[in-house]
Structure formats: structure tokens, C-alpha cells
Amino acid sequence: MTTAQQLNAQFGIDGQLGFREDASGLIVAEIGNAQASASLCLQGAHLMTWQPNSQSVPVVWLSRDAKLAAGKSIRGGAPVCWPWFGAHAAEASFPGHGYARTVPWQVVETGSEPDGATRLTLRLMESEKTRAQWPHSCTLELTVVVGETLRMELATVNTGIADFVIGEALHTYFQIGDIGTARVTGLEGCDYWDKVGGSTLRKQDGAIGFSGETDRVYINTAAECVIEDDKLKRRIHVAKSGSRSTVVWTPWTEKANKMGDLGQPDGWREMVCVESANAIENLVKVAAGSRHTLIVEYRAESL
What are the sequence ranges of the domains in the chain? Predict the structure, then answer.
């Protein structure tokens, strides 16, 4: 395994990007430039934090009880769900939301953008264990561009001779003032599967507000969403392409207590997930020799 020292020598950028080894033994990339700061764990290519310098609090939320551990997902940030979303269709023993978020990735490129943002590209490292769960020839890369906006590009390339179908999501947790006063706009009139209401199909009426556990998969939508946050006096814009599903999730009290790592006792009140995805009827067929890319861009606007 490549060491943090080796990564700094090959990929570090003075004054912008460095690598360190966490107490867990996992390697974390630390980004800081004139526009923003961010951190990313190489296991899972898991972006953990992002805060534009224009914002007094982070935009991407990381639980204060989050732990880094080999083979375990991190609570918060932007987990990469791939090559399936939710439970595996046929094999119950396979991990929920796929294996990409819990296996090692390797750095393949870093650089500075013309506007001063910092770019980092990682590739999922295959193993016997991953091939046993996903026996298809392909590469998966995540490119993260950290600046006043945060851009993430998840690219699946089918290098084989047969088509395959993927589900995916960037399962991003956003920091908000309080879930009881936040709302999400942009999905008005969209159909969604209500996972709390027994997986029933419903239609969104007006903005999304929160008064209890919410787990919804909005389908057939490429809409930009906005998280309206009166308490922190800001809007978070979520724009996407290559994605036809949006997932909106908050656990609320009972589920949060059972999960135990959301920042007890009420850390869950300070986050909401708005996930850019391809799920349920929006799964993506990636033809042999072709590429599919899911792109999201996040922007915070003070009110």
C-alpha cells in the first residue's frame, strides 16, 4: 500500500493538497486553497468535509461521532454508493449500497484548476473480493474539484464485451441549522417512492419539509434542488447531470438513536441527505466499451 509520504512526493501540491495517515491507519487527503477546505479518505474515495471560505460553518456534514476504520463506511460526508443502491437485488450477504465506499481507492491524478480550485482523481482498486461481488470488466473513477463550489464526477467505464446495469448515488450529508425548519425545493410535482410509507409511490406537493423520518427516492428527475436553511441563513444548491433519481433522507429520533454514530443526542438535527442517484427504475445500462458519468455540483449562497 502506498504511504502518505509517497503520495505527498508524487501527488502533493504545495499550499493546496497533502496526505496524512489517520490514527486508524487510513490515509486522508487534506485540501486547502484560497477558496475552500476539504478532506477526503482514500478508503471509499470518501469526501468527508467541504467548507468554502465564504461560509462560517461547513456545507458538507461529518458526524462528530464519525470513526475511520478499515472496511467500514464513515458517517457523514459523501459516501459513494456503487454498483448498486440499497440492498443487492439477489444476494442478501452483499453490503447495502455496494462495496465502493468501504474498499481502497488509489490516487491517479491531482492538479490545480485555472481558477485556483484543487482537483483530485481516484480509481477504485479491484480485488478478489470485489470481483466476487461484481464480475464485470470496468473501471470506476471519482474526480473531486474543491473550490468555492464542489464538483464531483463519478465515471463508470465498461471495459468488457457485455453490457451491465448499475445503481449508484453520491449519498451527500449537508450541514443545516435544524431539520425542523429546513426545506428542500426543486422536486415539486415529482413522483417518489416513500420508503417510510411502505414503499408506496406518491407525488410531491410543494416544498419538502421535515417532521419525522423521511426516506424518499424521487424518480425520473434531473432537477436542481435547493436546501433552504433559515437558521443558518443560507441556501445550498445541488445541480446534477447523468442522474435521474434524487434521494432525500433524515433518520429522525428513533432511527438515529439506533444508529448511534450520528452525534448523540441530536446531531441528526443538523444534517439532511440530498443524494444524486440512479436507482429503482432509473438504473443505468452501461454498454460494452462505453462510459457513464454522474456529475454533481454544490454551491452555498448566504441569505
Answer: 4-297
Instruction: Tell me the whole-structure pTM to 2 decimals.
Output: 0.97
CA distance 207 to 215: 15
Indicate the residue type of 161: I
What values do phi and psi take at 293, rounded to 5?
-130, 125
At residue 40's C-alpha, the angle toward residues 218 and 213, to 5°, is: 35
Catalytic sites, residue numbers: 171, 275
What cell numbers appear for 303 in the block?
Answer: 441569505
How many Cβ atoms sit within 10 Å of the Cβ of residue 290?
A: 11
Enter the DSSP assignment of 84.
-
Closest CA to 142 of 40, 38, 8: 40
Beta bridge partners of 19: 29
Distance CA 36, CA 124 (A): 25
pLDDT digits (tens, 9 = 90+) for 215-269: 999 999 999 999 999 999 999 999 999 999 999 999 999 999 999 899 888 999 9
Dmax (CA) for the chain in angstroms is: 53
d(CA 88, CA 33): 39
Spatial separation of the C-alpha atoms in residues 228 and 56, rounded to whole Å: 17
DSSP 24-69: TS-EEEEEE-SSEEEEEETBTTEEEEEEETT-SS-SB-B-TT----
| Matching CATH number, 4-297, of 1.10.3720.10, 2.70.98.10, 3.10.450.50, 2.160.10.10 | 2.70.98.10
Phi-psi group of 264: left, alpha or beta (phi > 0 → left; psi -120 to 50 → alpha; rest → beta) = beta
Beta-bridge mates of residue 209: 183
